Structures are given as C-alpha cells and as structure tokens.
Amino acid sequence: MRRAAVAIAAGAMAVSLAACGSAKESGDSNDSSDSAAKNGDDIKVGLLLPENQTARYEKFDKPMIEKKVKELTNNKGEVVYANAKQDASLQNQQVDTMVTNKVDVLIVDAVDYKAIAGSVKKAKDAGIKVVAFDRLAEGPIDAYTSFDNVTVGKTQGEALLQALGDKAKDAQIVMMNGSSTDPNAAQFKEGAHAALDGKVKVGREYDTKEWKPENANANMEGAISALGKDKIQGVYSANDGMAGGIITALKAAGISNVPVTGQDAELAGVQRIVTGEQYMSVFKSYPKEAETAAEMAVALAKGESLDSIANDKVDSATAKGIPAVIVPVVSLTKDNIKETVIKDGFYTIDEICTAKYKAACDKIGLK
User: Fold this and answer.
1) How far apart are CA 315 and CA 20, in angstroms?
2) What does the longest C-alpha to C-alpha distance in the chain come to?
3) For position 39, what pLDDT does the model report?
C-alpha cells in the first residue's frame, strides 16, 4: 500500500486524522471473517446517494455505477437505488431497508457523515460491507473513494487569486462554503483558506445550509447589504449550484465583473464560465470515482481483496486504515473546456453552446 502518498489526502480529511479509531472498526479489506462464502456474479449492490439538487448524482454517479456493476458481473449484478433528498433521517431508514432486503454490499454517499455511523454499524453487523462514496462517513467503513478535497479548495482559492491579479492585496471577498453536515465542505474550506488567508480580506463567510442555491442567494444578499455593493471584489463559492444563486444576487444588486468560483462542472456552471459570469469550476472525474466505487463494491460483495484497486489508506474518527482511492482534480476555466468536460464526454459542444450561448462560445473558440 502506498501509505506515504496519502499525506495530502489524509491532510485533506478533517475527520481522517482523529486518533480514536478502534482495531475492530478498521477498514481492512483482507478480513472477511464477517462475510459469507464468496458470491458469484449474482450480487445485489445498494446505492444510497444524498440529494438530487446537484446535477452530478442523477446525471453521472447513478448511471455510471449501474453500468460498471453490470460490466463487472456479466450483467447479473443488480443495483438497488435510493436518494435521501438531503434528509439524514430518511437515509438512515434507507440503510435499514437495504439491510432488510439483504443487499450484499452498500455504496453510501452520506447526507450527514456523523449521523450515518449507527446505520453503517447495523449493515456491518448484518455482514454487509460498506463503501463510503465521495464523503468519508463515520462507522466501520470498508472502503472509500473521493477526491483530494483540500486540494479542491486550494484550487478554487488559487483560481480566485489569479482572477483578482494585482488587485488581490486590496480585495475583499465573500466566502460561501458548503453545508456543515458534509465533511467535504470542511475540507474545501480548509483548502480555500490555505490559499486565501493573508492574501485577501474575507468580509463575510457563510456555511450554506444543505448546499442549496437559494440559501447561497440569501447569504449573498446579506453580504451585499452588510458590506456594500462596491466593496466586494470576488466570491469564493464551494460549488456550481451555489454559484448560480450567488450570481443571481450579484446581478440583482447591479454588481458585475466579480469573479466567482465553483465546483462540479455542472452544465449551467460551464455555460456561465463561457459567458464570463462565473470564473471557474473544479472538474472532477466522476467516471473514475463512480467506476472505482463499483469496483470496490463488487470485490467486497464477492469476498475479494481490494489490494489491486486501492493504493491508499485513510482514517476517519471511527475507523483506521480504510482502503481508499483518491481521484485527482483539474481547475476548469474557459481556456480548457475542450480538454476537460468535452474530451471526457461529459457534454458535447452542442449541449454547451445552445442558441443562448453560441456567440459567447464563438468568442472563446468553442466550436
């Protein structure tokens, strides 16, 4: 295992450095004593995603995981899907249902990484392995895949500084972080502060409830009222959905030419980058993350080792040595749209450059 290579990833996980994990809750994939005899291809994978407002979950993650499970099981594997719609209690009930229905393995993207811990333990007690997907849930997790979340935040912060240029030293910005119930949000914030602190003034900072664009919009309106519309030179937004709400508030106040960051490379975000309303997003290879989660899940369901899949290990507050795959990220601007989302098949030029955006696309050579 390439444990040393996790120095960045481990630092990127606010919960991963806690030293209180127990040996019993270690994510050691080689310990199959609590699982049944090895299964064949006829397996059942439970997939629990946290919400459906962010486009990625329904557009990318769900179909990609379903496709990969089919490929790995000669079309015999089944994916049982549930979306918690940002409700942690509902997600716990969904885990209970999956346990009752005797799935062989769970892939869980937690609404609330702490609140899910008891349900993860229930699954484990029932002999069901659990893959933490995108967010490092607490509890006896068996495997984890995500992105280097501190690096995501640093990438956003550095891009904002680049956009501000020489004006950065005198600039005042607003920081719009994600939900406090999402461990990734804390890591994005950590990375962003590492890039921004001491270089710009943070006039207002918010943790945005449930990542909702409307909440980011309301927060931005509050920031404009408190600081004054001529006193904001940039906005750190943790994702594209919130960036949309923020930009709406800026427009309503008559504020333009203020760089706004984002994440997830949502179609609307990419289109705002094309027009210049949004400065950047973070492009994350959802196919790689989704395929890795599926590979881990199928291997665990079959009682196989993860040694050939996971090259890292991470710790949470409740589990140590969790086999992990950390997927790299790229700063997406108008200059590399072709080399990122188009090259990887996320979108076609026609999808991005609809009639509304054709002139802006032509201007940046996106044809």
Assistant:
1) 10
2) 66
3) 75
